[in-house]
Amino acid sequence: MATSKIQKLESVFDIKVDAKQFYDVYCNKTHHVAKACPDKVQSVEIHQGEWGTEKSIISWNFVYDGKACVGKEIVEEIDKENNKMSFRVLEADLLKQHYKSFKFILHVVPKKEGGSKVHWTLEYEKMNDNTPDPHTLMHLLLESSKDVEAYIISQG
Q1: In terms of DSSP H, where are the helices of the chain?
Q2: Secretion signal: which residues (predicted)?
């Protein structure tokens, strides 16, 4: 029997672009993620609310572990001043198969010497003890983040 507790997986890495620019793509222009990495994310659509607002519901069509997947998330918290936000998964193949709950937290911090530090946190509750930690999902998130960085640079 699984212990019913929230677990975390975190990753921090540097990017060359401004923190506000990077955060703006995920917060206010989330649909641009599909433009930045079309091989990983085919579409991002808003179903309820508006881009950049709490309680908005967003769906993602993406490729995960070689399979086409769909996920629906609600934007739980937005802190524009500190470039921080969180998405809670409402529906997804990921949830049905492995997790009772799942949340993505993004925090982008400007660096004094230029560029930014991106901090992704995955908070999740496993269905059972045999459920793997979401390392491959974190890898997909990191690759997509690097694609978003390249997209911002290409936009000048």
Answers
A1: 19-27, 32-36, 93-98, 135-154
A2: none
Give me the amino acid identity at 134: P
Domain range for residue 149?
7-154
Specify the CATH number for the domain of residue 83.
Answer: 3.30.530.20
Instruction: Find where tokens 């530090």 sit.
Output: 117
Q: Assess contact for 134 and 104: CB atoms under 8 A.
A: no
| Residues 103-125: tens digit of each pLDDT | 999 999 999 999 999 999 999 99
What's the whole-number mean pLDDT along residues 132-144?
Answer: 94
Q: What is the dihedral sign for C-alpha 9, 47, 41, 25?
A: negative
Q: What span, in angstroms and rounded, lies between the C-alpha atoms of 38 and 115? A: 24
Q: Is residue 2 part of a domain?
A: no
Exposure string for 127-152, b = 16+ CB within 10 A, e = fewer? eeeebeebeebbebbeebbebbbebb
**Dihedral (CA of 142, 102, 59, 31) sign:** negative
Q: Count the domains in the chain.
A: 1
